[in-house]
Write a structure and sequence with these properties.
By secondary structure, the protein is mainly alpha-helical. The protein is built from four helices and five strands.
Length: about 190
C-alpha cells in the first residue's frame, strides 16, 4: 500500500485518506441522528406543546450536536481545501462528475449553514442553555421575532440537506450495486 498526502492506493484506485474517511463517517452519523432528533423535538415541543424534561433533553442534545457538527465540518472542509481529495473515479462521465461535485459542495455548504443558523436562532431567542448546566456562547442579541424566522429557515434547509444526503447515499449505492465501479470504495476501501 502506497501513501500520499490524502490519497492511498488500494487495488490501483485512489481512496480518501483515513482522516477524511473518519470525518466523513462522523458527519454522516451526526446528520443521521440530528435530522430525526430535530423533527422529534419540534413535534414534541411546538406541535404537541409538551415542554418537559424529555423535550428539554431533545433540544439540548440537538444544540450540542449541532454545535459540534459545525466545528467538525469546518475542520473537515479546511482539511479538504488544504489536503485535497483523490481524483474522480475514472469511469464517471463528465455530467456524473459535475453532478457529484455540485452535490458535495452543496452538502458542505448546508452542513455549515444549517448549524450556524441554528446557533444564530438560539442566540436570538435566546435559548442557549444545554441540559440546564451550561450556556452556549451567544452570537446575536435577543430578538424573538427574528429568531422564529431564522429557525424556520434552519428547519427547511435541514430538510433540504437531508434530501441531498439521501441523494448522495442513493448515488453511492447505485455506483456500487448497479455500476459496480470504485465510487463507494473510495470512502470504504475494504469493500469488495
Amino acid at each position: 500500500m502506497q501513501h500520499h498526502d490524502t490519497v492511498t492506493k488500494v487495488e490501483a484506485r485512489p481512496v480518501y485518506s483515513a482522516a477524511a474517511r473518519h470525518m466523513h463517517w462522523a458527519t454522516a452519523g451526526a446528520v443521521l441522528f440530528m435530522v430525526p432528533l430535530g423533527l422529534a423535538m419540534t413535534y414534541r415541543g411546538n406541535t404537541l406543546n409538551v415542554w418537559d424534561g424529555l423535550t428539554d433533553a431533545l433540544y439540548s442534545s440537538h444544540k450540542v450536536l449541532g454545535f459540534l457538527v459545525l466545528w467538525l465540518v469546518a475542520g473537515r472542509l479546511a482539511y479538504r481545501l488544504i489536503r485535497g481529495a483523490p481524483p474522480d473515479e475514472p469511469t464517471l462521465l463528465w455530467w456524473q462528475k459535475a453532478g457529484s461535485h455540485l452535490l458535495h459542495w452543496a452538502l458542505y455548504g448546508l452542513l455549515l449553514v444549517v448549524p450556524l443558523l441554528g446557533w444564530i436562532g438560539i442566540s436570538l431567542y435566546p435559548s442557549l442553555k444545554v441540559f440546564g448546566l451550561i450556556d452556549l456562547p451567544a452570537i446575536a442579541t435577543p430578538n424573538e421575532d427574528l429568531a422564529n424566522s431564522v429557525l424556520t429557515v434552519h428547519g427547511k434547509l435541514a430538510i433540504v440537506m437531508a434530501l441531498l444526503a439521501c441523494a448522495h447515499v442513493g448515488a453511492a449505492l447505485y455506483h456500487h450495486i448497479i455500476r459496480r465501479d470504485g465510487v463507494l470504495r473510495r470512502m470504504l476501501p475494504g469493500l469488495r
